[in-house]
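S., here's the first fold you wanted:
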Amino acid sequence: MTIVAGYHCPTTGQVWIGSDTRGCSSDGFILPVRVPKIVAAGKWLIGCAGTALAAQIIERDNRMFGDCETPQEVANTLMDLLQMGGFKRDEDAEAPAYGQTFVLASPDGVWGVAGDGYVAQPDDGFIACGSGQAYAYGAWTVMRDLLETGYEYLSPEIVVRCGVKAALRFDAFCGGDIDLRTPQGMVAAPAPEPEPEPLVTAAEKRWLNPEDEAELHRRGLA
């Protein structure tokens, strides 16, 4: 019930990670709260897809990641925390897993962590997890083609924002606002505000006499 996406730009070295903030109950009820899904732990940003409890456990015990230097060390710590937190492995699965997936971001790159602790680094710099990952990868496929043709207006931040936004648009279980972060100390630009709807439409203006239209302009209503 989540989208988490990360991107490491091979050209600039910038790293960004983003997620949605919707919370859903196990039966699909949308919770009326904002649910953060990215946790800062040492030099790492950890995006969580699964239950909100996993993110809360990582937040509570984030000091345990202070000495983690490699993605595999982070993954091992994640598995330990899930076990201590009462998560049960699905032993019937091909690779017994805890049912949670993660995206890791550090100043050096991004990685995915499966529910069994397996770590993978994307060969093209982009990775996503959660119920909306297919939509994020679809958006990335288009953006990657644009970047390969020399298109200059897709910053690493915009790549992640667009990947998450695609999941928000098409996955019924993703929603809320976009939580966008970087482990490199930069601040995400605010999302552009939509243009306000005019209080008087162009069609309605045709029926105004000049005096009325001048008065509306004076009041800032047209």
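And the second, which I think is the more interesting of the pair:
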Amino acid sequence: MIVALPTPELIAGAFKNYAGTGGGSESRKQAQRWRAVDQYRGVDLYQDVARYFPPGIDRQVPFSVQAVAGKIIDARAGVYRDTPERVADERYLERLDNLDEVMTHFERLTYLLGSMALLIGTTEDGQLYHEPLIEFEPLFLPQNPEPIGVVYPLHNAGAKREDMEWAVWTDQLHFRVSSSGLIMAPTEDNTDLVNPYGVLPVVFAHRGAAGSSWWRPMAQDVLDAQTAFNVLGTYLRQAFMLQGAGQPWTDARLDGTQLLNPWEILSLEPGETFSFATAGANLGQLIETQRAELESVAFAHHLSLKWAGEGRATSGEHQRLLEVELTEAIMSDFARWRMFERTRFQIDSIILQSVGMTVPPEYGVNFVEPHIPMSDTEKRERWEWEYGNGLASKLDYLREIDPDASDDMLRDRLETIARERAEEPTIQQRGELSLADLLGGAE
């Protein structure tokens, strides 16, 4: 949404055109974004499949409605899958509340929707909050490709869209506007419509590089693949039924009120016939076709699918070779999200100044490099090599297998192990003792 100047009146006027007759395409875009989120979450997938079948077909077999898009998106958006290490002033880190959880969700929504916004503010007790905005509209000045503000709806349960209020932020302004473009009465704590932070409290994130539009495209191919997968799954369910029970048919003249099915007795006149017909389809090929719909899209997103029951066990190193493309793709995302973290930290710092806290400018974030878990044999060989070369201790080993235990608990465990081993017979002694001796039964 372009505004001539960042004033309340001009912003409200531009928004009136956006929300009214001139905003049809933008409204459809926002509706598509919300529908994409529902599809990602597996909400009401029935409607995506039902339009490809005649009415009532689900009375024979239920529609296939599996939420596979979420699995692909979550697997690909892996930068925040493991909690990153943030290096900053301890007082600042204590104000972040549930940022790690928010960022995991935010990254996945960014990959799904292409473009996202993160709203930042403070709670009454001075904690920072970070809220993902699914529906929003950036504000632009003419000839300026970077947003200078944002408008987003203040959702009220049960409110119609035309009755909703919208929040407006720029680096200098903060006010509310109605869907008809009227500036709402200011609140008691902000009578001048001034942004109390002095900075736009929003960070924008994108899945890829800019194109002809500021908005990046959604992962529509993943959502379409989910729909195709479920449509083919529904066809498969019908095929299994018809292949198993068969399609009943007769050359009798029916009056149009009789329903042919294998569960009712059909009365025929002499000379009339009734039978079951099957298509003879190769159901295995149909299953492979259904899987291919997902596999081709997964490949485009640097993923390889493993289906349940395939039984193709591989070593950790072999899996690493299979997943090297995904690993490189996720690591290439590190730079973009590291810039996002830096921008978010700068806005966090400015906002915290409004509540009387000064944050030192030093900030760093270390993302966890994705890896494929090693097999038990590979883990054992690694530990033997590191321990044998003095690069790791027994305490390091116990820390890895029991990360929740304290060092004191692990040291007590090492002492217990050493004491028990000292009490056991040596190998030489075992050779001189009978089985009864070892079991404690010898006199």
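Why I say that: The chain has two domains: 1-246+275-373, 376-438. The first helix runs from residue 8 to 19.

Talk tomorrow,
H.
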